[in-house]
Write a structure and sequence with these properties.
Layout: H1 2-21, H2 26-29, H3 33-46, H4 49-54, E1 57-58, E2 60-62, H5 67-77, E3 82-86, H6 90-103, E4 109-112, H7 131-134, H8 140-156, E5 161-162, H9 187-203, E6 207-213, H10 234-241, H11 243-250, E7 255-258, H12 277-287, E8 293-296, H13 310-316, E9 322-323, H14 328-340, H15 346-362, H16 376-380, H17 383-396, E10 398-402, E11 417-422, H18 429-434, E12 440-445, H19 448-452, H20 455-458, E13 463-468, H21 477-484, E14 488-493, H22 504-509, E15 512-515, H23 521-531, E16 562-563, H24 577-588, E17 594-601, E18 604-612, E19 628-629, H25 633-648, H26 675-680, H27 692-695, E20 706-707, E21 715-717, E22 720-722, E23 733-734, E24 741-746, E25 749-752, H28 753-764, H29 777-791, H30 795-807, E26 830-831, E27 837-838, H31 846-850, E28 861-862, H32 864-875, E29 879-880, E30 883-884, H33 888-896, E31 930-934, E32 938-943, E33 948-954, H34 965-968, H35 971-990
Parallel strand pairs: 1-9, 2-3, 3-4, 4-5, 5-6, 6-7, 7-8, 11-12, 11-13, 13-14, 14-15, 16-18
Antiparallel strand pairs: 10-15, 17-18, 17-33, 19-28, 20-22, 21-22, 23-25, 24-25, 26-27, 29-30, 31-32, 32-33
Helix pairs in contact: 3-15, 5-6, 8-9, 8-17, 9-11, 17-23, 24-35, 25-29, 25-30
Organism: Petrimonas mucosa
Catalytic activity: Hydrolysis of terminal non-reducing N-acetyl-D-hexosamine residues in N-acetyl-beta-D-hexosaminides
Enzyme class: hydrolase
Length: 1002
């Protein structure tokens, strides 16, 4: 017994000296050596001779009907050390893993051959792209993140080893087996990208196995079918093929797979490298210093399967684990005989088995817990996983040509844009996402013939974006014609960069060329964002193609909103789960039929979701395109930007009296109200007047308009009962539209200019009280008149010209029915008293309606996305899309100033620091927040401290304005609470553990 212990100590000393003299792997270096050695000793000493031999084998098993019998044989008879499952589903592989764990005496390795994650083998796993796309990424943190996510999914599946990355240098475009499995053609890139990915995996507890040593990238044959020859000399091998493997070893990574390759320069003498001691022992271990686990490539491959005694040769060549032999029983017996004959020495066997057990301990193979198959899919398909998929494409999309700095697209107000999708029949994800940024006219052509017919139509556009979703194999003339039809043309290739070789004439003529690598939804979403500057272009070509060298790529900067997951800004999706719960509570409590919530953090939209429907008992769901009546948000999103612009141009000052700009006020007690007082709601104006009184003919009925409920007073309106037997003053309102009655009030109701003048006169004639704070829409009605007098145009035209069109906010408008189908617009109140109809696309506010739908206090409609663009412009200090809309000084003044008399800012609302119950925001919001609410159930809040925007849109006044459950349930404020709680969680997690953290809240 003592001699055995002494011999074991000698072997361990030899291993330790070897490791010290060579490159120790990170996994081994970080292990608890004492605990490791105790476990390895215990297990090794419990193994029979057959069990020791069995540790050297890892068969491949598919999820066929006979899998259970086959695995039982491998475990019970050949005592295997691990298994590689191939093909199937998440559930079937988990079932197999649970089964082998239950019957194996010695814990087994479970391996994956997943160069692009689980989806390479499992049909229902998250789909990551092939390595060629990864090769376009030069951000090592993203590559590492990808490796970590692949490892996380592996661990959920009970997988300990992933036979990835493939770090073969793809220097031969005609290679039949490597191709898109390689990161590219430049050895330095392949090394850097493969190492970053592998480090991510190993940091998350899964062994990375580099392949196919010594390099399968420049072969013209497939080792699955024959033995390829790598004919380069030693200098070339050192500088190209071997370079990534040496860097992988130097980085301390732990797994290596030997390929079935004939390499004459390495004296393989016709043997596959996987069976050559010159390669596996002398080159890999002795010269290059590798000390981790070595695996053969699959031994059923034709490149090796005809070799006699192949498993014995593989072990003698330096491999530790034999992968996927054809006849497991036969190979086991041959190795056993070689051990008995001393061909494989006891010391060699012990060294290999102990090394295998060492890594089993390090990788936690002994800590087996059954996989919960019921929750498995949810554990694998997480928001984080989808975020990593999206991020990969964000970083990969590559701009290789950009004449005249065509991208990102700018000057949206002067740029008519067409998007032509080639190879599709319907509008696709790419075109849908382009429309998030600008007004884009979309065309789809499935054939080249259809493409020819488009050329004449495209001449009316300044910019034409041609996306190739199926590259024409011939007849590129039609494509060239389309590219030439516009002054500015962009070509987006949703295919391999090698397709550029066929497209050279088109690429030459295009103003900008983008390579997106594949036609997945992720590639389309990322490309659309990059074209408009939502994300920067940062990818580089991984291979030479179309006259462009490898590493070609033009970088751009982010200048517009991007769209991603909360994880992009360090917030977990789970931490925002309460948003959904509260939003759905509002629907259940009939606070609104539906709503939309959008959150921007650090310039990225991280929450973008609709809930419910446009109406109760409707199937029309709220979505990103849904347009809402913003009500009083109009004050801050239309009138205020106009005032800020005029202030910027020194056409208006805050101390100017309103009478300077609104002649109707001159001679009245309203003339001296200053712009500042109106913005602060400190003018002394009354809060409200019954605007309908101005329009209704008092001679058309007897008695009061409102009374106790009866057959006469039957129209419930704003909590009262009104009569409907009145008529409007004929010179003010008509049910026919003509030159006189051209201001839309509602469906079949039109106001005249006389209505406008009469209403303005009534506003000016109201009582003026002391100049304390009193919220009043009348302030902004007068400010709108000032804007229009100064700008010589209506408020709608002015803000569109100076803001909305420049922002690409095509859904932000007054009078929305002039610009979009009614189906996009959420209905508001059923008005039985005044307009006597359901309102949809017409402003809810009565005063704004009588002004013809364009007013300073209400009338603006928008979806959440376009409102967010305006908010982001403010957060950016007046800049958006690479264009300055307001000076930074003006934005700072208007967004940062607060009244000394109330919580109000200059046109914006703000938190109430003295009374949380009266505050329109979450009590967690910092005092720097500015925004506004709307009577129809809307709000937006901009937080400069946390660089965050929160938008909530609903039609809470549907079908009537009372009761206001949105307010009584505090839906908007509670959702905002969830955002700040998530921020607190983010800040806490980012602080050192010995420091306290404090959220940026008041």
């Amino acid at each position: 017994m003592f001699k055995t212990r002494e011999r074991l100590l000698v072997v361990y000393c030899f291993l330790t000296l070897t490791l010290a003299a060579q490159t120790e792997t990170n996994l081994y270096r970080q292990a608890d050596k004492k605990a490791l050695e105790q476990w390895v000793d215990s297990v090794y000493n419990s193994l029979s001779p057959d069990e020791k031999i069995g540790q050297l084998f890892m068969p491949i098993v598919e999820s066929k009907s006979s899998w259970k019998t086959k695995i039982e044989g491998y475990i019970n008879n050949q005592k295997i050390g691990g298994v590689l499952f191939s093909k199937g589903s998440l559930a079937t592989q988990a079932e197999m893993t649970n089964y082998i764990r239950s019957i194996a005496k010695t814990p087994l390795f479970v391996a994956l051959d997943g160069e692009w994650g689980l989806s390479m083998r499992l049909n229902d796993a998250p789909r990551f792209p092939r390595n060629q796309i990864i090769g376009a990424i030069h951000d090592e943190e993203t590559l590492k993140l990808y490796g970590k996510e692949v490892a996380r999914q592996c661990r959920e599946m009970g997988i300990h080893i992933n036979f990835a990355p493939s770090i073969d240098v793809h220097s031969n475009p005609d290679n039949p087996v490597i191709g898109t499995r390689s990161f590219g053609e430049l050895p330095s890139n392949v090394a850097r990208q493969g190492i970053a990915f592998a480090l991510g995996m190993e940091e998350n507890g899964v062994m990375a196995v580099a392949k196919h040593f010594p390099g399968h990238g420049d072969t013209s044959e497939d080792s699955h079918h024959t033995l390829p020859t790598l004919s380069h000399n030693l200098n070339r091998l050192d500088s190209v093929e071997l370079y990534p493997f040496q860097q992988f070893i130097n980085a301390g990574l732990s797994g290596m797979m030997l390929g079935h390759l004939n390499v004459p320069a390495l004296n393989t003498n016709g043997l596959p490298a996987s069976l050559s001691a010159t390669v596996g022992q002398k080159l890999l271990k002795e010269r290059m210093g590798f000390t981790g686990l070595t695996f053969t490539d699959g031994m059923a491959m034709k490149g090796v399967s005809n070799q006699p005694d192949m498993s014995v040769k593989a072990l003698l060549a330096g491999n530790d684990v034999i992968l996927g032999v054809i006849n497991q029983e036969k190979e086991f017996q041959q190795v056993k005989q070689a051990v008995e004959k001393g061909i494989i020495t006891p010391a060699m066997l012990e060294e290999k088995v102990r090394k295998i057990l060492t890594y089993k301990y390090i990788l936690g193979v002994h800590n087996n817990k059954p996989i919960d198959i019921r929750s498995l899919s949810r554990s694998i398909h997480t928001p984080e996983s989808e975020w990593v998929q999206r991020k990969i494409y964000d970083k990969a999309v590559t701009l290789i040509k950009n004449d005249s700095t065509l991208l990102p697209v700018t000057a949206l107000d002067r740029n008519r844009i067409a998007a032509v999708a080639v190879g599709v029949s319907n509008q696709n994800r790419f075109q849908q996402w382009l429309k998030r940024y600008a007004e884009v006219t979309a065309f789809q052509v499935a054939t080249v013939d259809s493409l020819r017919l488009l050329s004449s139509k495209l001449k009316e556009f300044e910019t034409v974006i041609v996306s190739l979703h199926a590259v024409p194999k011939s007849e590129l003339a039609a494509l060239q014609q389309v590219i030439n039809s516009a002054g500015k043309s962009v070509l987006v290739l949703f295919d391999s960069p090698y397709a550029l070789d066929r497209l050279k004439p088109v690429v030459t003529q295009a103003g900008a060329v983008v390579v997106a690598y594949d036609n997945s939804d992720f590639a389309q979403i990322s490309s659309a964002q990059a074209l408009f500057g939502g994300i920067p272009f940062s990818g580089r070509l991984p291979v030479s193609a179309g006259g462009f060298a490898a590493n070609s790529g033009i970088e751009t900067r982010k200048c517009r909103l991007s769209y991603s997951f909360p994880e992009e800004v360090g917030i977990s999706t789970e931490s925002l789960a309460g948003v959904e719960r509260i939003a759905l509570e509002g629907i259940r409590q009939r606070a609104y039929p539906g709503c939309y919530v959008l959150v921007v953090k650090d310039g990225t939209v991280i929450y973008d979701r609709g809930f419910g429907n446009l109406e109760y008992n409707s199937t029309a769901a709220v979505d990103a395109e849904t347009v809402y009546d913003l009500a009083s948000i109009t004050k801050a999103a239309a009138t205020l930007p106009a005032i800020m612009k005029l202030y910027d141009e020194k056409k208006i000052r805050l101390q100017d009296p309103i009478g300077k700009f609104v002649p109707e006020t001159r001679g009245s007690n309203k003339a001296n109200i200053t712009i500042r007082e109106a913005l602060f709601h400190e003018s002394g104006l009354v809060s409200y007047i019954p605007y309908y009184n101005t329009a209704i003919d008092p001679n058309s009925f007897n008695g009061p308009l409102f009374g106790k409920r009866s057959s006469l007073y039957h129209a419930r309106y704003a909590g009262a009962w009104g009569r409907t037997d009145y008529t409007f003053i004929p010179s003010f309102i008509s049910d026919k539209r003509d030159e006189t009655f051209h201001r839309p009030v509602a469906n079949d109701l039109y106001a005249s200019n006389k209505m406008h003048q009469a209403l303005l006169k009534d506003i000016i004639a109201t009582e003026l009280r002391s100049k304390t704070y009193r919220y009043s829409c009348l302030n902004f009605m007068l400010l709108k008149e000032a804007v229009e007098q100064l700008s010589k145009t209506d408020l709608d035209s002015y803000v569109k010209e100076n803001f909305y069109r420049k922002l690409g906010a095509v859904n932000m408008t007054f009078l929305p029915l002039n610009h979009m189908p009614v189906e996009k617009i959420a209905p508001t109140e059923n008005d039985p008293f005044f307009r006597k109809q359901q309102l949809r696309g017409y402003v809810h506010d009565e005063g704004a309606a009588l002004f013809g739908g364009i007013s300073g206090n209400a009338g603006l409609f928008s979806n959440a996305n376009d409102l967010a663009k305006l908010c982001q412009m403010w957060l950016n200090g007046g800049e958006y899309g690479g264009e300055r809309l307001l000076s930074k000084e003006t934005v700072t003044l208007f967004t940062g100033t607060k009244s000394s008399k109330s919580r109000r800012g200059l046109g914006f609302d703000k938190p109430d620091p003295r009374n949380n119950n009266a505050s329109p925001t979450s009590p967690l919001a910092p005092l720097s927040v500015y925004g506004h609410t709307g009577f129809t159930g809307t709000s937006f809040w901009v937080d400069p401290d946390n660089n965050m925007i929160y938008i909530f849109l609903s039609n809470r006044v549907y079908p009537e304005r009372t009761p206001n459950r949105l307010s009584t349930l505090n839906i908007r404020e509670r959702i905002q609470d969830e955002l700040y709680k998530a921020l607190v969680s983010l800040q806490t997690s980012s602080q050192p553990c010995n420091e306290s953290s404090k959220a940026t809240t008041r």
